[in-house]
Amino acid sequence: MDHDGRRRIDPQGVPETLLWNLHQRAYEARQPHPVLDDPKAIELVERVDRPCEETFGPPSRLLSQGQALRVRTFDDAVRAFLREHPRGTVVTLAEGVETQFWRVDNGRAHWLCVELPETAKVRRALLPDGERRRTPARSALALSWRDEVDASHGVLVTAQGLLMYLRPAEVRQLIAGCAEAFPGGALVFDAVPRWFGERTLRGEMKTARGYVTPPMPWALDAGELPKIRTAHPAVTRGARTAAATRTRRVLRRGLARAAAAAGGAQHPADHGRPGPVRPDRRTAPRTPSAARPLRTVKQRARR
Question: Dihedral, CA atoms, 144, 146, 148, 150, nearest 10 degrees?
Fold first, then answer.
């Protein structure tokens, strides 16, 4: 339980990456001129009695800035969706203790935060559900969460820092499941390149404190984005979204510096160069929710 007003998180069964992302966002948000304004992340770090630096080492300004820029790309995509669909539903798959709701919510949208049971327990304790925000405890791959989504006002699904930890067949299953259920929705995801994924499989990505980046079975190189279309007939490549275009250049510069500073030991979530995919409306069922084609922002890591 709590002591000194802080809630202890037992890391047993909870992915350490959940706390790593929070650790980096809060560090950047504390800077005099942060690239991401995230007071909720600062609040959580101050409440959680978990010595992140013992595991991950002290934060790097360049590394935390790269993480924040990546997150900001997702924020921009969500904001763009909510401008067009103010009463839409945002589905976040395995976002852990991400605080995006407090940064971009418009006061009208509904949020469904799909988490594994052990992570859902932590999230509910730190970020209790509200009237428009719920946290169902189940695997994103189960796809039963789709039955809880109200698609009548538009749907945006985000998979932030998730797909790289899945097997290739599971990634295809998830993308196909979204395309089938939400032909007028949107999917935003990120990925790591193959060279990075291969190094994680060999256990070669470590921090100075010895933290080993978890294996990443799924990776996608910059030129392979069209392969996403093969997941389902309703998926096709589309024009780059405005949010991705605005962020791309600064993201690449910041992450390149972060990679150099980290000596190649940066976390996969810090990579990014966006590129989009969307479902083909010619093959998508005509439903009231299919008013617009699905868009996805895919962030590619650069060596």
Answer: -170
Chain centre to alpha carbon of residue 70: 9
Residues in the chain: 303
Q: Which amino acid would we find at residue 18?
A: L
Q: For position 9, what pLDDT does the model report?
A: 63
pTM: 0.78
Residues 6+ apart with CB under 8 A from 52: 19, 20, 22, 23, 45
- For the chain, give the percent of residues with pLDDT over 70: 70
Q: What is the pLDDT of residue 14?
A: 57
Rounded percentage of the chain residues whose pLDDT exceeds 90: 53
Domain boundaries, the chain: 16-299
Does domain 16-299 match CATH 3.40.50.1370? no
d(CA 27, CA 286): 46
Q: Which two tokens stand for residue 208?
A: 């100075």
